[in-house]
Amino acid sequence: MYDFLIIGCGFAGAVLAERLAKQGKKVLIVDKRDHIAGNAYDHYNEDGIMIHKYGPHIFHTNSEEVFKYLSQFTEWRPYEHRVLASVDGQLVPIPINLTTINTLYGSKLSSSEVKEFLASKAEARKQVLTSEDVVINAVGKELYEKFFRGYTKKQWNLDPSELDASVTARVPTRTNSDDRYFTDTFQAMPKNGYTEMFRKMLSHPNIHIMLNTNYKDIVNLIPHQKLIFTGPVDSYFDFRFGKLPYRSINFEFETLDQHQYQVTGTINYPTSNLYTRITEFKHLTGQKHSKTTIVYEYPTGEGDPYYPIPRKENQEIYNQYRKLADEMPDVYFTGRLGTYKYYNMDQVVAQSLALFRKIIKENDSQ
Ligand code: FAD
Ligand code: UDP
């Protein structure tokens, strides 16, 4: 008899498996894929270059707790991600910063002058509710069109005005020349990759791993006390309130017989092309190799559910599932798909650590 059956071997499931196993609980963790690490899975391709199968994953967090927790399972390689956007035939930093403005407009404005410039362009919105409001409120229509509208349409197949503010609010606006994509306190990549980190997390005698297995095929056959579900919450309930929309991506990898393809980790293509961005893995991993692998991201409505789509009508459907989920004493839901939240890796780790504490508390009071 297992104490816990955990569905999904990504961050959400693996953190709980590790924590519970250390408490002496017997855990079976199941994934329908043929590997651990969920969407953070990385591996060496046929040319010996480390790639991320489900798109580029850059670790960043402000949470010391999360960073310390993961540091038990990996060493780190310091890495600060930088992104350029291809706009008006030039490559300029995104998030929009001092350099972006001066390059695009051929100006030599100081930081305070850029602030004034952006204030003069910005169109104050009484309420900032949508992803369009966020950007237009900060930088005005012209920069919105150049950097956000087309990219967002490609990525989500929605106009920014149809998406919650939280989506484009992920990308700030700066008036200094800081060109890092993230400003979190901790920014680093697991030295030997994510999969290796997961291997260490899961190597405990109390954890059994079952891959290539849809949980529906075994859930009634394997005795267990409690279930933790990190797959899509709507699928757990057989879509009884309708399907929750997710956005997917087709990743196209290309290995080139050259040391480097582009000057920085990622280049975004807000208005041109069908793909949103190209990432070159060697920038992220620091790997030395005579060849290089890049990945193009083509967003699509079909395929694996990667992105919950933050907008009111979807939240309303999710709330119905959430209500059902809350009524089940022996089943817990967590993770990006299990709680339909556009979470980064560190947020998922924090969420699962919090759920672990809740489970232990409940256990103690029984
Ligand atoms: P997942 O990793 O999706 O794990 C869920 C697992 O459940 C999957 O392995 C799935 O196979 C399994 N499963 C589902 N249904 C079943 C079933 N019926 N039976 C058995 N198993 C099942 N975050 C960052 O912090 N930085 C980044 O740079 C970053 N980049 C990203 C880029 C892309 C393109 C994407 C899609 C996401 C990115 N993220 C990034 C987010 C990150 O991937 C997620 O926050 C994190 O992987 C979520 O972990 P999870 O365990 O909740 O879900
Ligand atoms: N975005 C944009 N232009 C950009 C970068 C981002 O319009 O050059 C918008 C787009 O809607 C995107 C969102 O901001 O989906 C969040 O961007 P982020 O890079 O955080 O997306 P992720 O890495 O999660 O795909």
Distance between the termini: 19 Å
Count of discrete alpha- or pi-helical segments spanning 4 or more residues: 13
The arrangement of helices and strands along the chain is EHEEEEHEEEHHHHEHEHEHEEEHEEHEHH
Find the structural class using helix and strand composition. Answer: alpha/beta
Query: What is the highest CATH level, the class of the largest domain?
Result: Alpha Beta
Instruction: Give unreliable regions as ranges.
Output: none
- Small-molecule components bound: flavin-adenine dinucleotide, uridine-5'-diphosphate
> Strand order, biggest sheet?
8-7-13-14-15-12-16
**Can you give the mean pLDDT?**
97
EC number: 5.4.99.9
Pfam family, one: GLF
GO molecular function, one term: UDP-galactopyranose mutase activity
Cofactor: FAD
Could you walk me through the main structural features you see in this protein, from its secondary elements to its overall organization?
It is a single chain. Helix 1 (11-22) runs parallel beside helix 13 (345-364) and helix 4 packs across helix 5 (131-156). The chain has two domains: 2-52 and 68-75 and 190-243 and 307-364, Rossmann fold; 83-168, no CATH class. It has 366 residues and is of the alpha/beta class. The protein is 36% helix and 21% strand. The relative contact order is 0.21. The protein is globular. Residues 7-13, 30-33, 38-40, 54-58, 214-215, 230-231, 249, 306, 335-337, 343-346, 348 line the site of flavin-adenine dinucleotide (FAD).
